[in-house]
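Help!! Second protein's tokens look totally different from the first
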Amino acid sequence: MERSDSGRSAVVAIECVAGSSRADEWWGGGEGEAALLHTGDVLEEITFGGCPPVRAPFKGGRAAVMKLLHAAFKRGDTSVLVRARRRDRAAQLELHACIVPHPPAGRRQYVLRSIRDPNYALGLVDRSESECIALQGSRSSRVVCALSNAKLKDGYITFPWEKKARDLLQVPYSSAFLSLIILPRASDSSGARYSSLEDTLAQANAWLVSSQAAGVPISFMNIQTEALLTKGETSSRTVSSGSAAATDLSNLANISLCEFEDYHGIDIGVIRAVRLWYSPAAGEMALEIKLQERDTKLGFAISRTDEGFIYISSVADDDSAGVAAARTRLGELHRRATRASKLLIVSRVGNEKVLPWMVSASGSIRCFDTVSLSQKLSLHRHALKPILLHLFTWEPSPALAAIPRVVEVPAPAPPRAPAEEKAPAPTPQSFAPPSPVDEVLDDLVYDISSGARLRKDAIGDVSLRFPLSDASSD
């Protein structure tokens, strides 16, 4: 009867919270070493600094010991000597430790961290004597107990974002993830009704297939729906016109607009647009055109596809002085693209993207206009500022991969009689800019004898196109 009561008596027991880096908490220490305390060892005595030791039994159990640890921690007396007993050890086991707060267990909760091995930390629990004996009985029982209490921890690590974005990305500080957002088409002129989600997905699919068929070297990555909020009069008009309610779950999968009411009673509509993610087929490459005072023209022309992509439509074969493009491999790249039935797409000028980015509810594609871009390139020539172009590549060939980010190697081109054109005299850097349209005519490769014509572009009132007869136009 006495043995049974002794087995049920409560004691303050040791519990391993964090394991030793040498894992000898399972083996009891090596020869001549002080054994580490195990889960299941019974706390017998604890000494705070130079104070008299506090011995078991601890009235109040673990809570009473925690109060002692809290008082010692507040007065700065954090070094403790712990003594415990184990059934198979005649002498008491000792551990020199320091008191450390343990927030996961709550306020005013502490663990004892070994001074000899800071990775080893002990907690205290209330257990019966029989439970402690069972845990002390075998290594496997201690491991099972530790496994049941083990928790994975997370934390934060520093990452050199600036360095990685500068050194590892094809275009420093800019991602290769490109996207186009397609708004659902308005079914009426008032914008009160929108086409279904399936129709918007079909638009995205058609744009992608059309771009690839036109020779734009892009690959599909992903597609997702994107919620756009509308409120006020537009939302009220849309909501009252019979759009599907958010509670109409049977139709929710294919609608482009659902509505709900906030706690102020304001109608809010959610338009479901579609975002199409794509990427260059084989990445991007950089081409720098360095300009000189003797340059009279840039030596290449740009156009735009129906899908909104800017591309190099032609490059001058004139390798004489005064043609900036002749000092680069732009002509060689253009010929390779033509042989591969691809377009030489310009993705960035400098570090600014010049790709289409949105399809409006009317179906128009929002993209960059060729004339303003031509004017900017012309100003580069007069300011003698290098032009940095990024181009889509279509195959991971060694020839293209060998071309560095900044290309200055001259490429021989077959001679061809240049078209008659009036080359302006070199202008110093401090100048009054001429008419933008006149500059575009002078800078771009423009063959009057080939029947070139001016054409108004759909993107804006001042957007003009200067195509060549031997170059594809949009």
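Here's the second one for comparison:
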Amino acid sequence: MEYINNNTYGIHLLFIPSDFICVFPENLRGQFISAHKGFLTFNATTITGYTTTVPNLPVVSWECQIKEGNKYKLQAIESTATFGGTLFLHLCLEIHAVSENKFYYYLGTNRHSFAQDYVEGVIATDATTALNDVDNSCNRAEPYNPGSYILLVKDGSVESGNATIQCPTDLLAVFSGVNITNSAGTKEYCEDTTLDVCNDRTMLNYTYNDTCSTVKTYSAGGVYSCVYAIEDSGTTYLGVWNNDTTVDDSTTFRFTCYAFQKSGGIVYATEAPRFCNDSDQTSTAVGSINGGNIIELYNIIQTCLDVESTTTTSPTTTVAPEEVVPASLDLLALLPLILLIPLFILLFFLIKRYVIPKIKARKKEVVITELRKLIVSLSASVVL
């Protein structure tokens, strides 16, 4: 904090470092969709729509109180009366920007066993007193598991293509074998079900067969858009958007997270609803909190790593008219150079025929003159 005393104008200015002012990132304004909490509305200092599972306190609004780097410490605007005072909730989010349409964040607060949510509660006489404990809201052990990020995308940005990415390289193929085991342990061998990531490299497109009539992924239609991926210790954590028109947050979810590894020609993956588990989700185990599916992808019948050589699955590229250069224009551009070549050849022979002999003759005359001078000088020396 810097204090400047300007006596000239009698003005005292107090400059506060930006981290002391709790303001959300500039592009994080308006309506966004969280993989964890659904629709949220951001303004400069508040979040609306961030609900909790705390009994008798379905909080919907939070106010940013302290900013430290990427960490934002918030206090719930709503509160509820309890024994001995009023219950206030605190929350810590570590927010990272990917683009103006896409962010991700980590939950910096431990999951509370009573609240069954990632919040911290404090009993105080009023909101101002409760703020004394907001600094303790970032109580989750660090470093955070990179794969436990939670996606936050601007409303409409996935549908417009502004928040999607090309799916990770290990998935760029067509798999004709798909095995799915759900969280209840029911496994189905869906040999006639396919996963196509070549027709559109930004999408996972399952075509369910009757052999997968009971167990499916968390998308009824089987079509996901790839949104963000992080690789950590050989495992890729891929956040995807379910393109189903509606979801029920029970058997289908708007966001899911794939943790996968490829070994030989088989991709081993787990799918968790909403976001990947904090510490115990791997490519073969779904973890203990969110449940999920275990998926095996095998029998690759087509790959699409090389965009140019895979013409059957590559999107058609149209060259703009101004980029097309006719061959006749290329020849016209080279015409001056072609005409100069005979001139250079003629100049070379003229120099060789007339100029070089004169230079040699001139050099010979100079040498003879110098020799004569030397002989005269030597003769004079002998006479003396």
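Reply: Different proteins will give different token patterns, so don't panic. Residues 39 and 218 are 19 Å apart (CA to CA).
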